[in-house]
Amino acid sequence: MVSKALLQTAIEQFGRLGFEGASTRDISRISGTAMSSITYHFGGKEGLYLAAADHIAESIAALLVPMLDGLRASGAASRDAAVEALLAILDSLAQVMLRPESEHWARFIIREQQAPTEAFDRLYNGVMSKVLEAMLDLMTHVRPDYDDRHRRAAATLLVGQAMMLRAGRAAVCRVFRAETIDEPLAQLLRAQLRTHALCILSEKSA
Amino acid sequence: MVSKALLQTAIEQFGRLGFEGASTRDISRISGTAMSSITYHFGGKEGLYLAAADHIAESIAALLVPMLDGLRASGAASRDAAVEALLAILDSLAQVMLRPESEHWARFIIREQQAPTEAFDRLYNGVMSKVLEAMLDLMTHVRPDYDDRHRRAAATLLVGQAMMLRAGRAAVCRVFRAETIDEPLAQLLRAQLRTHALCILSEKSA
DNA sequence: GTCTATACTACGATAGAC
DNA sequence: GTCTATCGTAGTATAGAC
């Protein structure tokens, strides 16, 4: 399974070093194969990069998408149910951000956020849009008084709190004077995120 | 002012391409000087990188730090005053994130968050810690019922909403089906951030 | 399918002229 | 202080053996 190894190594290397910084020499060497295997399996460096984006989107989608339909359905029952469903989505996002495995995905994605290429389209269409659509759907039940743009702004900012756990990881660790986010700290952050989100979502209409 | 030009170009190139991806050849060419000027002024590629981090920290500190002492003082008057001071800090952060000039800073900083080097120390000690200390100080007035770790978690997550405006820029634009964040959208996002923060900070104790 | 060998370009650093 | 010239290394891509 040379192509699988190349894909895994590519995600790590592209995430750490960026497209230009990563070298196909290193990727193939770490994967235990020859450089020319990249050309054979993916057509070249760029093909490998896009394949890595697809693989990341599929991996995250596998973790999140299956639960979205259920939450959308259960959230239609009442406003409180929609709030709970939104809290569940946010906590799932937070858990993904806290997973050690998400480190390389996150680096890759955050790079693409700063300078989107075709790879960002694949990430957005593959996962992000699905999560956001589910959130916006639930937001219509929670915030019928908001217009569409306000609901989008609210959902975006709520996601920001979860994203902080990855995108601002180094700062989070400094704030807590910790080397890493261990399990008790992770639970504290998730609980606080829930408190914040509950407060924002259940506040009576302005 | 060759060294100034090199510094500016370095921030842009390191931000876009990362340390490994950026080339001293390009940086010197874009700056209109010779490669060897980098060796002369900064000792080499790494010295230039650290100098770029210092320059970013100083630039952001110049925008934020002067207001922090005043807000800390005014926030000591009452709980409501502390809430208002915190809202002012968050809005300033949001404005920094929304500034077009912050694009290159942000890329540089976000890269360092994912893989901190000595440059992150300079960024954290130069600006981030000062903003966070001011926020935590105000939080003791707003949330005397929280323990220190909960206050740190709350402050961190609040900052996350502002950070989303930069770190998740591409996703924000997609959500609003916009090419860029124009002035009306920026105001909408800032207003929503204020609503969220106000809701979180003024909620009665749990 | 996977390898070795190689062609060609670009990298960072430095020596030395001015 | 800034330049040109050059060294040694490492980059991607490709041709061709097996």
In summary, what is this structure?
The structure is a homodimer of 206-residue chains. Chain A has helices at residues 2-21, 24-30, 36-42, 45-75, 79-98, 102-114, 118-142, 148-167, 169-175, 183-202.
- Which whole number gives the mean pLDDT of chain A? 95
Structural class of chain A: mainly alpha
Query: Radius of gyration of chain A from the CA trace?
Result: 19 Å
Order of helices and strands of chain A: HHHHHHHHHH
Which oligomeric state applies?
homodimer
Q: Helical amount among residues of chain A, as a percent range? A: over 70%
Task: Specify the biggest β-sheet of chain A.
Answer: none
What is the overall shape of chain A?
A: globular
How many strands in all of chain A? Answer: 0
Describe the structure.
Two copies of one chain form a homodimer. Chain A has 206 residues and is mainly α. Helices cover 83% and strands 0% of the residues of chain A. The first copy, chain A, has helices at residues 2-21, 24-30, 36-42, 45-75, 79-98, 102-114, 118-142, 148-167, 169-175, 183-202. Chain A starts with a helix and ends with a helix. The mean pLDDT of chain A is 95. At the A-B interface, helix 1, helix 6, helix 7, helix 8 and helix 9 of A face helix 1, helix 6, helix 7, helix 8 and helix 9 of B. Chain A binds a DNA duplex (18 and 18 nucleotides) through residues 2, 23-25, 33-41, 44-45.
List the helices and strands and how they pair.
Two copies of one chain form a homodimer.
Chain A: H1 2-21, H2 24-30, H3 36-42, H4 45-75, H5 79-98, H6 102-114, H7 118-142, H8 148-167, H9 169-175, H10 183-202
The structure holds a DNA duplex (18 and 18 nucleotides).
